[in-house]
Amino acid sequence: MKVSSELWKEQLKEQIRPDWAKEIEDFETTIALRTQNKVEEKLFAETRLRRGVYGQRYDNGLRHDGIAQKTLNFEEKPGKGPGTVWDAPGMQRIKVPYGGLTPEQMEVIADLTEEYSDGIAHVTTRQDFQLHYIHLEDTPSLHRRLAAVGITVREACGNSVRNVTACPYSGVCPDEKFDITPYAHALTYFLLGHPDVQDFGRKFKPAFSGCKNHACGLTNMHDLGLIATSRIVDGKEKQGFEIYVGGGLGAVPHQAKLLSDFVPLEELLPLTQSIARVFARLGEKQNRNRARLKFLIKDLGIEKFKELVLEERQKLPHDPRWTEMIQEIQSFQESAKRPGGDLKNIPDDADFKRWLETNIRPQRQSGYVTVTIALPLGDITPNQLRELANIVRKYTKDTIRTSVEQNMVLRWISKTDLWDLYQDLKKSQLSQSEAGHIMDIVACPATDTCKLGVASSRGLAGELRKQLAEKAFHMDEAIKDLHIKVSGCFNSCGQQHLADLGFYGVGRKVGNYMVPHFQVVLGGQWENNGGSYGLPIVAIPSKNIPAVVDRISEKYLKERNKQESFQDFIKRIGKLEVKKSLEDLSKAPSFEEDPSFYNDWGDPRVYTTGDIGIGECAGEVVNLIDFDLADAEREVFEAQVLLDEGKSQEAGNKAYWAMLHAAKGLVKTQFLDVKEEAEEIIQEFRKRFYDTELFFDPFAKGKFAQYLFETHQKANQSFNSENAHHTIEEAQLFIEAVHACNLRMSQQINQKK
């Protein structure tokens, strides 16, 4: 039962930090003013986003599991006139710095999930929690109840410093240099609300890792990546950080650049502050598509950026918190609740033995291990959260963390307790094995709730997990170790660029209908903190993706060299060979032959329709643009092959012409006589589609056209492996945008008939 906001305010006022209480009161007042149309929507949107409050989509009608939304016992909220923010519930993101939770915090999140949302708490790929179907007027109550147990939602979203993530094995990993937990904590609260981080053009994501080798921190894909290191100074070992800047996934991924190979601990906070000040001062503010730190560093170059940061550090006024906060955390140390030991007399239980193989990691402290709790799709129920809180109290001193793979990790578990712990987890339906393996699939929310979702990533992930589980008993260990990650659109919320097998949703027209597809992404590396990014090779109908997984994995098993990794195998045989092996799967049958291809996973409705018209004689009329888009897709794939062969210049040029040919195809829908000249293609495209905004979709606007224009402006540039990779990625996205524009125009024509 919901309790009024005023009652929570009164009951919890003694438990909430005064500054946090004031922030919540201010937000509550801003909501009231917005409903009276006294606050501009643009300002209110950024205000609520900085409190972790998002809108969400409702046009899909179904959740990923096929349960109709109308059965979720939520009233439709009527609009309130000009001040309406949502006509229906939205989403609340909850920041969990470095993924660290207490049992009390877990119980509060469980209560909020049960009282205000659809009964599912979702762990994200940045160690946060998200609750969906939350009404805006309820958010101040949620914020107060979270604040009472030490959780703030301030800057959970928006143009701000997002959650500071960190390896969930920090402090217990055998390979780490030192425990980065206290430093992640210090950076979180030093930057929280800091005046120097309030004027960013876009978000800023920090991440910590205790080592270089593993993927637990993924520092290479962050705006600020910090890796623990040490060096000998005056005969003594001194701890510090390697600092990387300008990483990011998104539509066009960038690897972070090394800013410094050693920054002493006492310089962590002031140097980060200096980076933030340079970003705030020089980062793009108008064009959101180029407002991330990665674009500023790309424009300036890493050496110039470093020079500016060091200049900023020299003139930065001294802040006593730089040393005070570091000194405060020097004494931080976790410890065990129960004596360590060994697991003896392992019960003859096949499920338990498999769980030991996949969900247990050695801890550097003798007699202890860490245990990963695999959460399918990152979901956990309120009762499971409460039961898990009790398990944490029973076996540990509050040492549980969320992970970037949407799981939860128990630390300091005595080996002697493993059988009893397994039984307790089993009672709560939290004992699934295969953590970090092929069935532990990462997926973003996509069409379930995200306004940008194109195809159902959670629906596909659920189906893949189901089919893979049926084959698990006979599956080769080399396949079990692969990572699958799925996003519902070109943005990388599911981190598909880092997977062995990555997928992201796109739409394709087949006859009179739209068919949900996924681009197949190969070449990513999960290890080494996200060591390399993959590229899309071919779009496949969504219903054929399970067959893609089967075919590629079978090919790997049959043709690999002894002990050859999946990444090395793909590199050796080449993407062209892989694409050829998937050729037949890239074609969807007609609607009459198999209408199931025209539904998305978990949704029985036709994906979308467009009465394009049936051609005469033996088949359909194929529009000229379809030929041009096919040529463009072929060229962008050829660019990938050239890049893999080390021919960066040819690859970049080929990707540029792929964009031009896609643009030319669109121009020819209005002007057949456009010539094969870059300048004329650009002029006609700009005049007919960019200036008229025909090319603009509701969310990306003209973002993808800018990829074409900027590449054209630098048509004579020299390409290296990095900028050629970026140009290929941009070309693929531009081609997808041309597909989408053509479909919108076709649908508009048919609506007028």
Task: Explain what this protein looks like in three dimensions.
49% of the residues are buried. Helix 6 (181-191) packs antiparallel against helix 10, helix 7 crosses helix 9 and helix 8 (293-300) crosses helix 9. This protein is an alpha+beta fold. The longest helix is centred in the C-terminal third of the chain and has 32 residues, at 721-752. Strands 16, 17, 18, 19, 20 and 21 form a six-stranded mixed beta sheet that branches. The protein contains 24 helices and 21 strands. It folds into four domains: 5-147, no CATH class; 173-329, Sulfite Reductase Hemoprotein, domain 1; 350-427, Alpha-Beta Plaits (2-Layer Sandwich), CATH 3.30.70.3340; 506-752, Nucleotidyltransferases  domain 2 (Four Helix Bundle (Hemerythrin (Met), subunit A), Up-down Bundle).
Topology, pairings included?
Layout: H1 5-12, H2 18-35, H3 41-49, E1 53-54, E2 90-94, E3 100-101, H4 103-116, E4 121-123, E5 129-134, H5 139-147, E6 165-166, H6 181-191, E7 206-209, E8 224-233, E9 236-245, E10 257-264, H7 268-282, H8 293-300, H9 302-315, H10 321-329, H11 350-359, E11 360-362, E12 368-373, E13 379-380, H12 382-395, E14 400-402, E15 408-414, H13 418-427, E16 442-443, H14 457-471, H15 477-480, E17 484-487, E18 501-510, E19 513-522, H16 527-530, E20 535-541, H17 545-559, H18 566-573, H19 575-581, E21 608-609, H20 624-644, H21 648-667, H22 678-690, H23 703-713, H24 721-752
Parallel strand pairs: 6-7, 7-8, 16-17, 17-18
Antiparallel strand pairs: 1-2, 2-5, 3-14, 4-5, 4-13, 8-9, 9-10, 11-12, 12-15, 14-15, 18-19, 19-20, 19-21
Helix pairs in contact: 1-5, 2-3, 2-5, 4-12, 6-10, 7-9, 8-9, 20-21, 20-24, 21-22, 21-24, 22-23, 23-24
